[in-house]
Write a structure and sequence with these properties.
By secondary structure, the protein is of the alpha+beta class. It has a single domain, classed as 2-Layer Sandwich (Killer Toxin P4, Chain A). The protein is about 25% helix and about 25% strand. It has 3 helices and 7 strands. The protein has helices at about 50-70, 100-110, 115-120, and strands at about 10-15, 20, 40, 75-85, 85-95, 125-130, 130-135. Belongs to the cysteine-rich repeat secretory protein family. Keywords: Repeat, Secreted, Signal. This is cDNA clone:001-030-G10, full insert sequence. One of its GO terms (cellular component) is extracellular region.
């Protein structure tokens, strides 16, 4: 990553289901929602009924965000909301595990507030910050595919590594 990023003093690397960051200061526990350290990805074309779609996407993101900021959630929330009888909106809200629930809420609030302007009524959109990310799609993209409830993954088996 260091050579890939031209030996800069800080870097962020986003992949599907993976995020890596290094910096020249201790950023653990810090909410980072700077625009110069964020990524926005939007799908095209717009859905047929923009208002109804944005309402369904907003409800799904609201549920996922509430789940992510709940104590004991490990900063992960997933939700599914019906848009039409045949189309559902799947939402994911996640914070890095070093954030407290209030800090997670602050970060996700900043991400979700960008959806209207950045995403419109696109069938999928993702806002990535260094300390949280929010995403919705019209297909199930998160694992496990259970639509709601707590994650079935035992997060105590994962470790974060800080290199000095």
């Amino acid at each position: 990553m260091v050579s890939y990023c031209n030996y800069t003093s800080d870097s962020r690397l986003w992949y599907e289901y993976c995020f890596m960051r290094y910096d020249n200061y201790n950023f653990l526990g810090e909410v980072d929602t700077r625009e110069d350290a964020s990524v926005t990805m939007r799908q095209w074309p717009d859905m047929d009924n923009p208002k109804a779609f944005q309402k369904a996407a907003g409800k799904a993101m609201g549920k996922a965000t509430a789940q992510a900021v709940a104590v004991g959630s490990s900063g992960l929330g997933r939700a599914k909301e019906q848009y039409t009888p045949f189309v559902s909106v799947y939402a994911l809200a996640q914070c890095t595990r070093d954030l407290s629930p209030p800090s997670c809420a602050q970060c996700l609030s900043a991400a979700v507030s960008k959806f209207d302007k950045a995403c419109g009524s696109g069938p999928g959109c993702q806002i990535d910050y260094s300390s949280c990310w929010a995403r919705y799609e019209i297909y199930p993209f998160y694992f496990p595919l259970a639509a709601a409830g707590r994650a079935t993954i035992d997060m105590t088996k994962y470790t974060k590594v800080t290199v000095h």
